[in-house]
Specification:
Order of helices and strands: HEEEEEEEE
Shape: elongated
Helix content: under 10%
Structural class: mainly beta
Low-confidence stretches: none
Strand order of the largest sheet: 1-8-4
Radius of gyration: 15 Å
Distance between the termini: 20 Å
Number of strands: 8
Largest sheet: 3 strands, antiparallel
Length: 97
């Protein structure tokens, strides 16, 4: 039943994987990278996962323009966070409301 409820709210689900090297984010800073995701639209929900330990950093993603998801690494650790190049898995959920 829960799967059907999810599909009723999010009839369009787009998946994408991309290899990204975000570089180093200093304390209180962030670095970002754009990923082309055909079909992504402003207002869509985005889930993102990272293939390496984020070392107390935060990874977020949002649709910033049509067909573009921006993945962001933020650091509030008291030091720099520099992740290795890795594959990010992105899921874009287009709500029907």
């Amino acid at each position: 039943m829960a799967r059907k409820q999810f599909q009723d709210v999010f009839p369009d689900v787009i998946t994408k994987s991309a290899t990204i090297d975000l570089g180093s984010a200093g304390d209180g800073d962030e670095v970002a990278s754009d990923v082309t995701v055909p079909g992504a639209a402003l207002g869509d929900f985005v889930l993102v996962s990272c293939g390496v330990d984020v070392v107390d950093g935060q990874i977020t993603a949002t649709v910033t323009a049509a067909n573009t998801v921006t993945v962001v690494l933020s650091s509030s650790t008291g030091g720099a966070v520099d992740l290795a190049s890795t594959t990010y898995k992105i899921v874009v959920l287009s709500p029907n409301f």
